Amino acid sequence: MSSPAAARVQSFGTTVFTEYTTLSLEHNAVNLGQGFPDFPAPDFVIEAARAALATGHNQYARGAGHPRLVNALAAVYSPVFGRELNPLTQIVVTTGATEGIFATIQGLVDPGDEVILIEPFYDSYPASVIMAGGTPIYIPLRPAPGATSAADWRVDVDELRAALNPKTKLLIINTPQNPVGKIISREELLTLAQIAQEHDLLVLSDEVYEWITYDETPHVRMATLPGMWERTITLGSAGKTFSVTGWKIGWAIAPEPLTHAVLMAHQWIPFAVTTPLQEAVGAAFEQVEERNYLHELSAMYQAKRDILLTALNDVGLPPVTPHGSYFILVDTTDLDAPTPTDDPRDVQICRWLTREIGVTAIPPSAFYSAEHSHLAANIARFCFCKTDAILEAAATRLRANLRS
Ligand SMILES: Cc1ncc(COP(=O)(O)O)c(C=O)c1O
Q1: Measured from the CB, is residue 174 less than 6 Å from ligand 1?
Q2: Among the four residues 57, 238, 343, 364, which has the most C-beta atoms within 10 Å?
Q3: Domain end call among 291, 306, 341
Q4: Ligand 1 pocket member 178 (CB < 6 A)
Q5: Domain, as residue range, for 354
Q6: Overall average pLDDT of the 232-247 stretch
Q7: How many CA atoms lie within 13 A of 225 on its CB side?
Q8: Are residues 148 and 24 in the same domain?
Q9: pLDDT over 80 (residue 343)
Q10: 68 CA from centroid of ligand 1 (Å)
Q11: Measured from the CB, is residue 210 less than 6 Å from ligand 1?
């Protein structure tokens, strides 16, 4: 039986990762497509999960979040937010940041509301907006000509202002950003904050890569800018922070009227999040400071980034240097690859890279609206959240098969 709702959900199609994971396996390619770590989580994190299961944390959790986790989150985030967070009223634990996105949008966006999405985006944003009856409005990051740094990809403020109208309700930002690796600078955030206040917008700030930053680039939080705490929902993810994407533990931090809206949606989505893994993430956060873990996380990824950056530069795939997250965009303009079909160029290039070069990348048009997907024609996305051995294997193949 089909229905308009089923048709709407089906219209999102399958995700780009389904195709490229299958293609990569078929061609025995080195898979730098989907962004999940292929190395084990830290021992202290796994140990915390083992202990949580063994000590009886196996029944439904408190809906808004298991006490040990919300207390640990309040302890970690209060200093970085510059305010004493109330663990019981200002934090909601979600089934990964993906549910945080969905619950925030379900809780705050009404049918007919418009939501500003900055492209390229994490692909759950438009789906979540449409399922809430909202309308996504797409504003692409515009790279400066010859951009070699993620910082050179910026929102055109005039373009953003022109898209605003009384129906605009929410602005979604992602910093550090997937897939460009951009960290939105304080100056850029201040401009966005001013626009949000002028137009009375809420801001969803997706900060899942908050602890993965490079070259000492400061990660500035929208919620800490003047006048922004009141209108910002900040999302985080244990999947990214502790290399446990399969655990699906995330959180939303906001003032109480906003967390209440998120919670009202959340209570009908998962109702509660897995108890033992919340206990484990709480225990892990309690140890991050003494272990200097968050600093080491960035250092580990920066070394991985540099392996891949060097290889990409060597083979004539000019990279956009990321300052955060674990992705690198490359410029494929000069690749001498056949594009015989009507499919978008980036899709054909990424298939060719998988089949002929033996390394899988993701075509970024999946992270653009149909109206702007042409902007992705000459780019491809590689991830580097992989073991050094896998990154070296990818580098070897790129050097062997691409160097002219
Ligand atoms: C920008 C962004 N937001 C959210 C998520 C999802 O986070 P989680 O795995 O916690 O649902 C991802 C995962 O790739 C992401 O890249």
Answers
A1: yes
A2: 238
A3: 291
A4: yes
A5: 4-41+294-402
A6: 98
A7: 25
A8: no
A9: yes
A10: 23
A11: no
What is the distance between the alpha carbons of residues 358 and 27, in angstroms, rounded to a whole number? 7
The pLDDT, as a whole number, for residue 295 is: 97
pLDDT confidence of residue 252 = 99
Which of 323, 305, 314 lies closest to 382, judged by CA? Answer: 305
For ligand 1, the distance from its centroid to the CA atom of residue 342, given in whole angstroms, is: 31
18 CB-near residues (< 8 Å, 6+ apart): none
**Structural domain count of the chain:** 2
CATH label of the domain that carries residue 197: 3.40.640.10
Same domain, 224 and 306: no
CA of 97 from ligand 1 middle (Å) equals 6
The pLDDT score that the predictor gives to residue 1 is 54
* Res. 11: pLDDT tops 90: no
Same domain for 240 and 138?
A: yes
> For residue 178, how far is its CA from the centre of ligand 1 (angstroms)?
9
Query: What pLDDT, on the 0 to 100 scale, is given for residue 330?
Result: 98
Helix (H, G, I), strand (E, B) or coil at 357: helix
Can you give the pLDDT at residue 263? 98
The CA 46 to ligand 1 mean position distance, Å, reads: 21
Q: Average pLDDT of 69-74? A: 98
Say if residue 404's pLDDT is above 60: no
Q: Mean pLDDT in the chain?
A: 96
- Place 15 in a pLDDT band, splitting at 50, 70 and 90: confident
Q: Average pLDDT, stretch 221-228?
A: 98
Other CB atoms within a 10 A radius of the CB of residue 224 amount to: 16
Does the beta carbon of 98 sit less than 6 angstroms from any atom of ligand 1? Answer: yes
- Please, which contacts does 330-339 make with residues 24 or more away whose CB atoms are closer than 8 Å? 330/361, 330/379, 330/380, 330/381, 330/382, 331/378, 331/379, 332/378, 332/379, 332/380, 333/378, 335/402
Among residues 262, 291, 320, which one ends one of the domains?
A: 291
User: What is the DSSP-derived secondary structure letter of residue 353?
Assistant: I
Residue 339 CA to ligand 1 center (angstroms) comes to 31
CATH number of the domain at 329, please: 3.90.1150.10
Residues 163 and 281 in one domain: yes
Question: Is 0.90 topped by the overall pTM?
Answer: yes
* Token code pair at residue 251: 């959180």
**Whole-number pLDDT of residue 14:** 75
Both 236 and 311 in one domain: the answer is: no
Judge if the beta carbon of residue 177 lies within 6 A of ligand 1.
Answer: no
Closest ligand 1 atom to the C-alpha of 325?
16
**pLDDT score recorded for residue 16:** 84
> Which atom of ligand 1 is nearest the CA belonging to 35?
14
CA dihedral for 304, 305, 306, 309, sign (positive or negative): positive
